[in-house]
Amino acid sequence: MSLSLSGSTRNLPQYGALVAVLLANWLLFPDFFSIRLQDGRLFGSLVDVMNRGAPVALLAIGMTMVIATRGVDLSVGAIMAISGAIAATMTQAGWGLSAVLAASLASGLLCGLWNGVLVAVLRIQPIIATLILMVAGRGIAQLVTEGQIVTFVSPDLAAIGSGSFLTVPMPVVLTVAMLGLTALLVRMTALGLMIESVGVNRLSSAYAGVNTPVILIAVYVWCGLCAAVAGLIVTADIRGADANNAGLWLELDAILAVVVGGTSLLGGRFGLLMSVVGAAILQAMNTGILLSGFKPEFNLIVKAAVLLVVLLAQSPALTTLLPRPRGAQPIKPHPVAPKRTTP
Amino acid sequence: MIQRFLPLIVTMAVLVVGFLLCAAQFPNFASLRVVGNLLTDNAFVGIAAAGMTFVILSGGIDLSVGAVIGFTTVLLAVLIEQAGIHPMVAFALALIVGAGFGAAMGAVIHWFQMPPFIVTLAGMFIARGVSFVLTTDSLPINHPLYSDLNEVAWRFSGGGRLSLPAMLLLGVFALSMLLAHWTRFGANIYALGGNRHSAELMGVPVARTTVGVYALSGLLAGLAGIVFSLYTGAGYSLAATGVELDTITAVVIGGTQLTGGYGLVLGTFGGVLIQGLIQTYITFDGTMSSWWTKIAIGVLLFVFILLQKGLLAVWSDRDGDPAEA
Question: In chain A, at which end, N or C, are there fewer CB atoms within 10 A of the end residue's CB?
Fold first, then answer.
C-alpha cells in the first residue's frame, strides 16, 4: 500500500517531478513562492496552482479508484456539467443552500450508480459504458438549464468557489477533505485491498469471496460524487452553469493526472495522494507555461510529452529491455491480456 | 451466418424505420435532396468512422481522429494560403502526414505494449497542440480549386445532388468493405481482434497489422479532414472536437463488438446515417432543441450495447464459451 515505507521511495519520481516543475517556475518567476495574506485569504502563485488544480485533483481522486479496478470513467466531465447545472438552476429558482448541495451531490451519486450498474451488472466495457453518459450527460445538463447559461446571485453558493476557510481557498479545503475522507474509507478498511484485487483479477476476486459487483458500483458512485463536487466548485467559481463547456475534456486531464501519479491503467495498486500530486504537477506546468510567456497553445504538447514519458517509463516492454538497477531481479512483463482460466 | 448479419439487419432496420417515420411526419423528408444532404453533411464523420471500424475490429480504439481532422484542416490552410502550395499537393501531404501519425501511434502501441486508449489520447493532445501552435485563428482558404471542387456533384432531377464529399464517403465505404472482407489484411484484423494470442500463434503478422490498422485510421482521418476543409472552406484548430466519440458511437450502433473481432463495415455506414437522421429530424422539427440529439444518441447507444450483450450471451451459451472472464 502507498502508505507503507517502501511506497514512499516508489513515489520519488512524482515528488521529484513536482519539485522540479515548481523550481522551474521559481526560476522563471522569482515571486512564485511568495504568499501574502489579504482580506483573510491567502494569495500567491502557489496558492493559485492549488486552487486551479482542485477540480482536476477531485476528479483524479475518484478516477484513481476506477482505474484501479481496471476501468475508466469518461463521463466525469458530463457529471460536472449536470451537477453544476442543477446547482445553478435551483439557486436561481430560490432554493436554499442545503437543498441545492444535496440535489447536486445526489445527481453525481445517481450518475455514478448508472455507470456502476452498467459496468458491474450488465458487464459492459467501462470505456463504452461511461461513453453513454459522456454523450448524453451534456444533453441532460442542457435540459436542466434549458439550453441557456444560467447565472445566479448567491454569496453562499459562490463561497464554495471563491471563499476561504481559515485563510485557505475553499476548493483546496474541499479537495483535501475529499482526499482525507477517501483515504480513510479505502485505507483504514479492507475496501482498498478489495478494489486492488478486483483490478488485478476480477474472476479470482469473485472466487475469493469479494463481492465484485458491489465494489465496482461503489467505486463508480464515489467517482460520480467527486465529479459532482468538482462541478459545484466550477459553477460556484464562475457563478453560473455552462452546460456545454463546464468540465469539457477534464476527464482526459483527470486520467492524465492518475497516470502521472503512477497508478497503472492495467489496474491493481493505486495511490490516491499520488494522483493529487499528479494533478498538481499538471497544473504547475500549466501555470509555468503561462508565466514563462510561452503561448498557452504549447500546453497540450507539453501534456502529451509528459504522458508519453510517464507511459514509456511504465511500459512493460521497456522494463525488460533496460538493465535493472543494482542487480535487482528483472520483473516479468505484466500480461497484456488476462489469461483465460477454466473454472 | 445469421449471427454475423443480425446486428447489421437491426441497424439497417432502425435506419429504414427511422427514415419512414420522419417521412411520415414531414412529407418533404423523402426526397433525394434530403438524402443527398444527409450524405454530404455526415461525410467527414463517416469517413473517419470507417477507419475507426478497423481499429475497433482489431480490438483497439483511436481517440485521435477528431484532433487529426482538426489538424489536417489547419495544415491545409497553412500550406495553401501561407506557403502557396497547390491544393492537390497539400492534400497528398495531409494524407501522408495522417497515415504517418497513425502508423507512429500503432508502432508505440505494439512495441511498447501500451493500451491503445492512452496512446491515442496522447496522440490527440499532440495533434490538437500542434494545430494550436500553427494557428489559433480560423484561416479561410480562398483557392479557386476549392470552389471548383465544391461544384463537383452528380445532380438528380428534383434538386438533389450527390456532392464530392458524399461520393468520397460512398467510395471509402465500398473500398473499406473490400479491404475488410476480401483481403488478407482484413482477415488478419478480424483474427487479431478475436484473440490476439491465437492470431499470433496462427502466424498473423501482429506488428504489421497493428501498425497498418492505425495508419489506415490516420489516413482516413486525414481524408476526413480534407473533406471537412472543403465543407467549411477554412482551417481551424478547434474543428471537429468530439468527432472521435461520434465515430465510436457510429461503430457501436453499426453492430461492431467493442471487444473486437465481430462486426461489419457496412453497419458503421448505417450507424453514421442514423446519427445524421436524428440531427436532420431535429432540424426539420424546428421546435426541438439540439441537445435532444445528444440524449437520443446516448439512448440509442445504450439500447444497441444492450442488444449486443444479449446476442453475445445467447451465442456464448450455445458455444459453451464464456463471453468474458
Answer: C
| Cα–Cα distance, B276 to B278 (Å, whole number) | 5
Tens of pLDDT, residue by residue, chain B (325 residues): 567 788 888 889 889 998 999 889 888 888 888 888 899 999 999 999 999 999 999 999 998 999 999 999 999 999 998 888 899 999 999 999 999 999 999 999 998 888 888 889 889 888 988 988 888 888 888 888 888 888 888 877 777 788 899 999 999 999 999 999 999 999 999 999 988 888 989 888 999 999 999 999 999 999 999 999 998 888 888 888 778 888 998 998 898 888 888 889 999 999 999 999 988 888 888 777 777 888 888 888 888 888 877 777 777 665 544 444 3
Instruction: Indicate yes or no: CB of A136 within 8 angstroms of CB of B295.
Output: yes
> Which residues on A lie below 8 Å from B197 (Cβ)?
337
Question: What are the residue ranges of helices labelled H in chain B?
Answer: 2-25, 32-41, 43-57, 65-77, 87-111, 116-134, 144-151, 164-182, 184-194, 196-202, 206-232, 243-253, 265-285, 291-319
- All residues of chain B having their beta carbon less than 8 Å from the beta carbon of residue A252 are 121, 124-125
- Give A278-332 pLDDT, tens digit per residue: 999 888 888 888 877 777 777 778 888 887 887 777 666 666 655 555 444 444 4
Contact of B198 with B186, CB cutoff 8 Å: no
Looking at residue A333, the DSSP 8-state letter turns out to be: P
List, in order, residues 6 or more apart from A329 with CB less than 8 Å away: none
| pLDDT score, position B319 | 52
In 3D space, the residue among A236, A218, A226, A217 whose CA is nearest the CA of residue A86 turns out to be A236
Instruction: Give the closest residue to A235 by CA, choosing from A141, A143, A165.
Output: A141
pLDDT of residue A83: 94
Q: What residues of chain B lie within 8 A of the CB of A134, using their CB? A: 245
Interchain pair B258, A318: CB under 8 A:
no
**Domain extents in chain B:** 43-271
- Domain A42-313: state its class: mainly alpha
Element containing residue B162 per DSSP (H, E): strand B161-163
In terms of DSSP bridges, do strands B153-155 and B139-140 run parallel, antiparallel, or are they unpaired? unpaired
**Cα angle at B157 between B156 and B163, to 5 degrees?**
20
Rounded Cα gap, residues B275 and B300, in angstroms: 9
What are the chain A neighbours of B117 within 8 Å (beta carbons)?
72, 127, 265
pTM to 2 decimals? 0.84
Residues 6+ apart with CB under 8 A from A272: A2, A61, A64, A65, A179, A182, A183, A186
| Closest-CA residue to B224 (of B32, B82, B76, B325) | B76
Sign of CA dihedral B248, B249, B253, B258: positive
Whose cell is 483504514? That residue is A188
The partner residue sitting opposite A128, judged by closest CB among B121, B136, B258, is B258
Q: With both helix axes pointing from N to C terminus, report the angle between A155-162 and A170-187 in degrees, rounded to the nearest 10.
A: 70
Instruction: Give A 277-336 residues with CB within 8 A of chain B.
Output: 295, 297-304, 307-308, 311-312, 315-318, 333, 336
Chain A residue nearest residue B298, CA to CA: A136
- Every domain of chain A and the residues it spans: 42-313
Give the pLDDT of residue A328: 46
* CA gap B59, B37 in Å, rounded: 33
Please tell me whether residue A166 adopts helix, strand or coil conformation: coil
Counting Cα atoms < 13 Å in the Cβ hemisphere of A292 gives: 20
**In angstroms, how far apart are the furthest CA atoms of chain B?**
63
Residue A98's φ and ψ, nearest 5 degrees, are: -65, -40
